[in-house]
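Chain A, query sequence.
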Amino acid sequence: MSLGVQMSASQGLPNPGESPEAWTWKRAEQLIATLSGVLSARIVAGRGGEVEEIHVLATQETQPKLVVRNIESALMAQLGLKVDHRKISVAQTAEVRPIQVLEHEAVAEAATRRKLIYADLVVESPRPKRVEIRVLLRAGDVLVEGIEEGVDEPRSRVQLAARAAVKAIEKGLVDSGVVLEGVKVVEAFDRRLVLAGVHGVEARSSQMLVGTCEIKENPEQAAVLAVLDATNRWYLLQR
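Chain A, predicted structure.
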């Protein structure tokens, strides 16, 4: 097949210094690689600009004959290239994802294991006018717990919930720590929010961390979520 370069405005332009032939084969390889079941593709072109071979690596989820038909159809529809199906060879293997994808997924999985997520909050009254607040946070499959007890009063309960969250966070830290600066309920944008200020302490330095959470279920839960909002990004860097 002789090469004729046909392109639409949406397909872009060749890179400077790159021949139209090379650009078209690169576009064709990229197009083939987007097809269902295809992992990679390489086109071998002759000196006269004709296709000699198309080598494709595909998964086992698609029949080779269907892969070939898909390639023929895509090249004709998108680039106006007609290719003899006998020049297309398909090798099948178990799915192999690019190393960049695997690395990204590994980093994301590790971050998920490290990131603290709200699990539960339990409020109990051990004796009259006293309250105990227990906060459970999850890091992957691990649960960490923080408990605080104090006077059973609305403002005190918000403080206790925030302090219990800080205690739970500290259980996952070794060479650093967190200190609650303060927490309060504020009115903003016609909503009630909990604002939490926490110091992230590392060696001889500390960093002020601020987080917020709108009160939806109760102020105590919002206080825990505000502390997490303040500390989670900082926390990931400490592990």
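Helices lie at 20-33, 64-79, 99-114, 154-170, 219-236. Confidence is low (pLDDT under 50) at residues 1-19.
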